[in-house]
Amino acid sequence: QKEVEQDPGPLSVPEGAIVSLNCTYSNSAFQYFMWYRQYSRKGPELLMYTYSSGNKEDGRFTAQVDKSSKYISLFIRDSQPSDSATYLCAMSAYGANNLFFGTGTRLTVIP
Amino acid sequence: DTGVSQDPRHKITKRGQNVTFRCDPISEHNRLYWYRQTLGQGPEFLTYFQNEAQLEKSRLLSDRFSAERPKGSFSTLEIQRTEQGDSAMYLCASSPGNEQFFGPGTRLTVL
Predict the structure, then answer these.
(1) Cα–Cα distance for residue pair B102/A69, rounded to 1 Å
(2) Is the pLDDT of residue B1 over 80?
């Protein structure tokens, strides 16, 4: 079993829709949670960073962490065609140096 | 541009050749990481530097791979006697703490 599970999609939504992306994990030591956006053949771009449980909002993006369920989510409101990319969740434990990534979910927003 | 830079962006080589990649981190970041990403997968951790010290290496980093960070600034990743299985995107990231910021990657193709 992988430490981080993420549905690879693909996911297609109409422009303006609310998008929900999710990851589950098995390691209860994970404390830091991140979402990255990766366009084709580019490096991952950090979108959201959260520590421990709770919600964090930044513009159209909201990240949620539920440590009791080992479940994290990223919501994108008013989705735009420019949001079309692969979204990667990543997490690490306190004091650890490496990130564990999901496989990524490929999102297409249709105009 | 003050982000992480990597060079070259693309490298095509023949099996058995040696290749070297360079990463220039964000200048004030003392932490530097190398990851490898294959198609349809999330990045996988290879190695970590704090300043010039290589503090952690993944079991993925076989003895054909070597990384350095002289003077705690830029870093190089060398692959000796390349194999077709080494074909991947090699990503460098730097960090001031827990958040990691990625470069554009070097795409390696081994023929």
Answers:
(1) 29
(2) no
